[in-house]
Design a protein that fits this description.
Helices cover about 35% and strands about 20% of the residues. It has about 650 residues and is an alpha+beta fold. Helix 3 links the parallel strand 1 and strand 2. The longest helix is centred in the C-terminal third of the chain and has 24 residues. The radius of gyration is 32 Å and the shape is elongated. The N and C termini lie far apart (about 70 Å).
Length: about 650
């Protein structure tokens, strides 16, 4: 081989001792021989009845010695009789020889035992399960690294929905395909396809045409056999004839990757959200606008470990109590469903998704723990935030790219974790905005959802937003119950419900225009209309007295208000300072600049130092040099048993918290 020749003629003398050694028996990552890794991978009696190794006569003795040293059955070595490169049979002929001489009549897996693999810990059982779930052959592929040339690989084009390989190009010239998915000599063949090998050999008498890549090109492009692709989130090198420079380069590259700190924790955060307009029509082919807020978040940390461990949260998943009374009080208030179930359900769904999508995962274990400050059961998307943050960690840990799991599909995944695994009543809005982050306009129209499986999601400008506030109940009920029987009424085609969902969509389009034009008065009006429309559909009994009282309280102070989620909280926009409580001021106080309300002239007023001490936000109005203290609204909610705060938008484009007010 070329590599053996270069080792023999190495001027440095560092590799001359490897002259004549087959490529598969050269040192690989971690000092193991390349073939050692593959033998450990397939040496599983529960998966494979027999393992055969095909070699030529020239290198047979090397492999015989390796077999006796590694408990490989010597009788399963197949010698093709060739001794020179010019006299070789070709890889397809070698494969056909093994099948014919050993009278194989079952499904087979074919692997080039001299390939160097970046990640030597993938789950080959997952590969077999995917193969058996499909009615066709299987070809493994990987996403090429930067700098790799498509002219050196078999390139596949794969349907993202069916995972069927639609085209196979063996070492294509530049420009023939935009795909960078490289097939490697790692295949599964059904028993009924094995006779095709003899047919291929009859059509290709020359050894140089009997490459496995040419076989698959023929099977896919000409014979139109159903061949499916499965992705390994790793890399493969030293495929075919390579030189010493390639060997040293990729061995050093993969060895350095393996030595990277495996214990470095991966931490991901997802934020709570507020529905600004259109909710709850996201579950009814409507339209919504929602925004992530930096006030509240869920954070998940993943660390590689020997076994897979899910760590209970000390507050949300208590297992130890001060007394029976303590257990009673906590259970009565918090219920029995903490965040641990969300971690477990996400992991289960992630494995199932990757298996179904043809993505083989490495056999790595990890420890997951989470923390969150999102108030429970007040409709701020606390559950989906934990799922979203967990998914981010898993994707990074297993090297799953945005191409493998695009953002719209990711939102569907998070929703399915909650609805299918945990039976939580939910819609897509929360998951979409937590995946995209920021301020997002969402259209869940029927044609979009049925045609693509997801809606149209458009991030909006966050450079200038109105001053929003948020209040939530101190002792809420389960927010999931607020949906009541509206879905069934909608499915039954009840006119009032169907028309209401269309009206929610119309309000959302108007709100989008108001946000773009910075017409906060119009936005406030639309927020009130959104709530009243929701009230008419869901009824007061379903919304609950707590939600109704919060909205009524906000309106007493001239503030627009609506439910930002399924219930337990209200989001408000207050633009009328006349409805707030008047307080005095002094020119001896500190100077304070402010942004005037719509239609007012800017000015500078003096705010009493006593007001600064309260830490309360203020709303200033220039007429008559009078200002009004917004702390009265906050105080009113606090005295009503609610928690009150200013909304702090989370803007992903700046990667910083955007303060306002």
């Amino acid at each position: 081989t070329y590599l053996s020749f270069y080792c023999q003629n190495d001027g440095t003398g560092l590799y001359s001792h490897l002259a004549g050694v087959p490529k598969a028996l050269l040192p690989g990552v971690g000092g193991k021989k390349i073939l050692d890794f593959w033998w450990e991978t397939v040496n599983m009696r529960q998966l494979f009845s027999e393992v055969y190794l095909v070699t030529n006569a020239d290198k047979y003795k090397h492999y015989e010695r390796w077999a006796t040293a590694n408990d490989f059955p010597v009788e399963n070595l197949v010698n093709d009789g060739s001794t020179t490169l010019e006299g070789r049979l070709g890889a397809v002929a070698d494969l056909e020889l093994a099948i014919r001489s050993r009278r194989l009549s079952d499904d087979i897996m074919v692997i080039a035992g001299d390939m160097l693999c970046a990640d030597q810990n993938f789950d080959i059982a997952q590969v077999l399960r995917f193969f058996r779930s499909k009615g066709g052959e299987l070809a493994i592929y990987y996403e090429m690294e930067e700098g790799e040339e498509t002219t050196s690989r078999g390139i596949v084009e794969v349907c993202p929905v069916t995972h069927r390989i639609t085209r196979f190009l063996e070492k294509p010239n530049a420009g023939l395909t935009g795909s960078r998915l490289a097939s490697v000599v790692f295949y599964c063949l059904r028993r009924q396809t094995l006779p095709c090998l003899a047919q291929f050999l009859d059509l290709h008498p020359c050894a140089e045409d009997r490459m496995l890549g040419r076989l698959w090109e023929w099977l896919v492009n000409e014979e139109k056999l159903p061949v499916f692709g499965m992705k390994l989130p790793t890399g493969f090198q030293l495929i075919g004839q390579v030189g010493l420079a390639d060997y040293t380069k990729w061995l050093a590259h993969y060895s350095a990757k393996q030595q990277e700190s495996p214990g470095k924790p991966i931490t991901s955060r997802s934020y709570a959200r507020i529905g600004l307009m259109g909710n709850p029509s996201d579950g009814f082919n409507g339209k919504t606008i929602a925004m992530t807020i930096a006030n509240f978040w869920a954070e998940v940390t993943l660390t590689e470990s020997q076994t897979l461990v899910l760590v209970p949260h000390p507050l949300n998943d208590p297992t130890e109590f001060g007394s029976l009374q303590d257990l009673y009080c906590i259970s009565r208030k918090e219920g029995y469903l903490g965040g641990l179930r969300l971690l477990q359900a996400t992991c289960k769904k992630f494995y199932h998704f990757c298996s179904k999508q043809g993505i083989a995962l490495s056999k790595q274990n990890f420890t997951l723990k989470y923390d969150t400050n999102i108030p429970r059961q007040v409709g701020l998307a606390g559950s989906s935030a934990i799922v979203s943050a967990t998914l981010k960690c898993l994707m990074k840990f297993y090297n799953i790219t945005d191409g493998d799991l695009p953002r719209p599909v990711r939102a569907n995944f998070i929703l399915n974790v909650e609805t299918e695994e945990l039976f939580i009543t939910a819609g897509l809005q929360d998951r979409v905005v937590q995946v995209y982050e920021g301020l997002v306009y969402m259209d869940f129209g029927k044609e979009l959802m049925e045609g693509k499986g997801y809606g149209e999601y458009i991030p909006m400008d966050m450079n200038c937003l109105p001053p929003l506030w948020l209040a939530y109940l101190g002792d809420p009920s389960d927010s999931g119950r607020i949906h009541s029987n509206v879905r069934q009424r909608w499915l039954n085609g009840e006119p009032d419900v169907v028309e209401a969902m269309k009206s929610f969509a119309e309000l959302t389009d108007q709100a989008r225009n108001a946000l773009q034009e910075r017409d906060w008065s119009k936005l406030a009006e639309l927020m009130d209309r959104n709530f009243e429309l929701r009230r008419s559909v869901y009824t007061d009994e379903c919304l609950g007295q707590g939600n109704l009282k919060m909205v009524e309280l906000a309106r007493q102070f001239g503030s627009a208000a609506k439910l930002p989620g399924s219930g337990g909280a209200v989001v408000g926009l207050c633009l009328d300072p006349h409805k707030l409580v008047r307080v005095g001021w002094s020119r001896t106080s500190l100077p304070f600049s402010f942004t005037p309300l719509p239609g007012e002239e800017p000015c500078k007023l003096y705010m009493p130092a006593s007001c600064l001490c309260t830490g309360c936000p203020v709303v200033l109005w220039s007429e008559g040099c009078v200002f009004y203290h917004q702390g009265e609204l906050k105080r009113a909610f606090q005295e009503a048993g609610c928690v009150f705060c200013q909304v702090v938008p989370y803007d992903p484009s700046s990667s910083t918290v955007q303060d306002q007010g």
